Each structure stands twice: as structure tokens, then as C-alpha cells.
Amino acid sequence: MTDGLNACIERMYKAGMSDVAIAQFQRMYKVWETDEVGWMHESDITPMTDIVSVADFHDTMPARTARTALAKTAILKLNGGLGTSMGLDGPKSLLPVRRHKARQMRFLDIILGQVVSMRIQHKVQLPLILMNSFRTSKESLNAVRHNRRFHQDDIPLEIVQHREPKITAHNGSPVDYTDNPELQWCPPGHGDVYSTLWESGILDILQEHGIEYLFISNSDNLGARPSSIIAGYFAHSKTDFMVEVARKTTADRKGGHFVVDNATNRLTLREMSQVHPDDKSVAMDEQVHPYFNTNNIWIRISALKKILKKYNGILPLPVIRNNKTVDPTDPHSAQVVQLETAMGAAISLFDNSCCIEVTRSRFLPVKTTEDLFILRSDRFHLTDAYEMEDGNYIFPNISLDQRYYKNIQDFNERFPYGVPSLAAAASVTIEGDWTFGRDTSCFGDAHLEDLNSPSYVPNGEYIGSNGIEPDTWQ
């Protein structure tokens, strides 16, 4: 595989990649080359079960303490995603989520609204930084510049994550794809945030402006809004690295979770890809591992700089092998491997890291059109402070026929007037090709069967367990 690695490095040099980007890729490639899976057996770890909850101090946190901490906090949003799994070809954060006061609001619009609202409410600077990818930078920055309420001059608005070659699965060489050379490249996962921060020099700039803490989260998680209460707790804790975790539901059983490594006695992130097949059922048991990783992370900047200096900007994080096709939209294109690292895995590098339990309201990700289906429904209200508000954050199970609803364009065409009401729905299962009229409603275990032809739910109809309800009493 040496020839493959050399060819990858040569391609990166020709593309103007930095020494840090190349060194990081080289490290991941060599880990992949050894073919060590790196199982984290259940017998080698101890479940994390007893942690502090935000509810324990939410009502007793002094307002001054919270505001002072927020005044020393910067927000970093991971904004490199394209949403290719939903058929998008631009920044996922520019996907419309819902309307607010007659305006169509995208993820990025809501994020900017959350930041501006907190700046005004608490009278703090609260810098926002986007970690864009080479494919999201231009469009995302253009959207920010068109927001008349958001202003930021002294601190850079973005850092750009690295990119690396996709590797041909069978021989380790960089893949060639002349149909679209851009698809020969991929990001190195959100663990790349650390080397990007190191190389950009932005940590020094933040400290010069009095910023001591960094709150990092995904741009497609609208629940991860700035929190003065959590900032206050983190500032007065003795920890340098803190991750928000939430109680598992059935939908979260396959998510990553934090455990204690028995060999080191340190907190460690265990992704499901690191769980041995014999341990899968236990790892997904919410009675054994009750919390999952929200990927909302708080870091003390001074401590992060020390760790980055120790490792010359390249943290020794576990390598994730992501098997895909070179064109994500074409299952028949070449099989490739994308090497990635996870941001939360850095928890094991800090001597005094911790987790904190948050409510479900801080984890509202959109990975599929089924997630978007819920966020666009009447289950949510977007407040004037740009918070996605729901009564209990216990959502109905949604199953949409992937043949007709997986792609965002197909999804939008089938809900021309918006998604149905879900206020009374326990679950929604749509099989087949259904288009919905205006003011439709789902209740109970709503179910539409496949009629083997394009079908229509008329205006104002109700969908229950037996499909469209009859309009007369039987």
C-alpha cells in the first residue's frame, strides 16, 4: 500500500494541501493500512450511568455567573455537510426548515437568529465561527452577508476544514473520477476541527478578544443553541472538555456513547463501528448505556491549545473507515474508503473531561427527510428567540417510503402545501407514492398503504390506522 499512500500525498501536494493536512491524512492512512479494527469490548469498559444533569442547577445558577461565562464564549458550528443522503448538492444548512413570520427559514438563518438573540438578551459579543468545507464556504458566507441583523468584524467568520483523497477500496490508491473530479475528495470527519483550529490561528485571536470557552456543535442540530446556564456551569467546573449527552430513546440505540476505559480510567467515545458484533445488543441496551452523544461539546481554549501543541496539531484519534461509492448518488460507481475521525473522541486526551446530561430539546438533528418531516410539522413552534419549541420532545415514529421521499426534491413535490399535522400522531407510515393536499392531519398510528400507483390525500382529510378516514359515520 506504500505506492497508494505516496500517490495520495502527491495528489494532495499538487492540490495545494498544507503540511498539517497531509500529515493528518498520512497518520489515518497508516492506521487503516494496518487493518486493525480496534474493538472496544464490553468487558474492557464500564458504562457511564451517574452524571450531573442541567436540571440539577438550572434554577439556581446566578444570572451574573451565567452572563459572565457567556461573555467569554464563542460558538463554532460544523457546517461542511452537503446533505447528499437527501439529494442535496449545496450546503445542508441552506435547506429550508420552516416559515417564521411569513419568511422561509433555513438552518443557517435560524442559527444566526439564535446568536443575535442571545447577543441582545445578554449584551455579549458571542462570536460565531463556521467550519465550512471547500464545497460549502462560498454559499454559506454569502447567506450570512445577506443577513441584515448579524454583524461580526474583528473575529473571522469561518475556518475551512481540510480535505483528503478518497481511497480506492481494493488497492489503497487515490480514486480517479473524471466525470466529476470534485468527488475524488472528501472531508476527514468532524475530528478534523482540531487540526483546522490549530492551523488557522483562530484560537489565539479568540483569546485576544477575551474568549476562553468554545462551544462546538453541528449546524443541522437546531437544538444546540447558545446556553448561558451551561456556559456558567462549565466555566466554574474544573473540567476542560465537556460533552452534552441525552437519555436514549429507541431511535438513538445505534448512536455513539461514552464509556470509561478500564485500562486508562478515562472517558472514551465508543462509536457503534467500534463495538464487537458479540456486544451489539448490550451496547444498544438503554438500560446498560442510558446516554448517547449529542456532539455538543464545550472546550476550554487554553487547555485545547496545550493538547494541540503536544501533538503538533494532529490529535491521535481513533480512525473510522467509512465505506462508500465515489459518487454518493450512484451505487454503481467505484467502491471507496473515506478515512475519518470523530470530534468527541478527543475526550480521552483530557485529564479532567466530563459529560453532562441535557434535555432532548438540545438534540434536534436532521439527517433524513423523515427528521425534516417532524421539524416542518405543527409539532414545532419557532419562537422569536429562534428556539425550536415542542411540548415534550417525544416524537412520533416516522417511516416514509424511500423510493418517493428520500430525495428532498421528491419530498417537497409530495407536500406542496406543507406536511400534515402531527399533533395527534403516535406514528406515521407512508407506503407508496402519495401526494398530500392542504390541511391534512395524521392521528394515532397513521398508515397509508401502497396502491401501486400515484395516489392523493385530498384537502382537509384525516389519516389514521386504516388510511384516509371516511367522511361519513358507518
Structural description of this entry:
- GO terms for molecular function: UTP:glucose-1-phosphate uridylyltransferase activity.
- With 474 residues, this protein is an alpha/beta fold.
- It folds into 2 domains: 1-362, Spore Coat Polysaccharide Biosynthesis Protein SpsA, Chain A; 369-469, Hexapeptide repeat proteins (UDP N-Acetylglucosamine Acyltransferase, domain 1).
- Helix content is 25%, strand content 26%.
- The chain is built from 13 helices and 27 strands.
- The strands form 8 sheets. Strands 2-18-12-15-11-3-6-7 form an 8-stranded mixed sheet, sandwiched between helices. Strands 21-22-24-26-27 form a 5-stranded mixed sheet. Strands 1-13-14 form a 3-stranded antiparallel sheet, with no helix packed on it.
- Strand 4 and strand 5 (103-106) form a beta hairpin.
- 40% of the residues are buried.
- The model has no long low-confidence stretch (mean pLDDT 94).
Structural domains: how many: 2
Distance between the termini: 71 Å
Quote the average pLDDT.
Answer: 94
The structural class is alpha/beta
List the topology elements.
Blueprint: H1 2-14, H2 19-33, E1 45-47, E2 52-53, H3 63-70, E3 73-79, E4 96-100, E5 103-106, H4 107-122, E6 128-132, H5 137-145, E7 158-160, E8 164-165, E9 167-168, E10 185-186, H6 193-200, H7 202-208, E11 213-218, H8 228-236, E12 241-247, E13 257-261, E14 266-270, H9 280-283, E15 291-300, H10 301-310, E16 320-325, E17 335-340, E18 353-357, H11 369-375, E19 381-382, E20 388-389, E21 397-400, H12 402-405, H13 408-414, E22 421-430, E23 434-436, E24 441-448, E25 455-457, E26 462-464, E27 467-468
Parallel strand pairs: 2-18, 3-6, 3-11, 6-7, 12-18, 21-22, 22-24, 23-25, 24-26
Antiparallel strand pairs: 1-13, 4-5, 8-10, 9-17, 11-15, 12-15, 13-14, 16-17, 19-20, 26-27
Helix pairs in contact: 1-2, 3-8
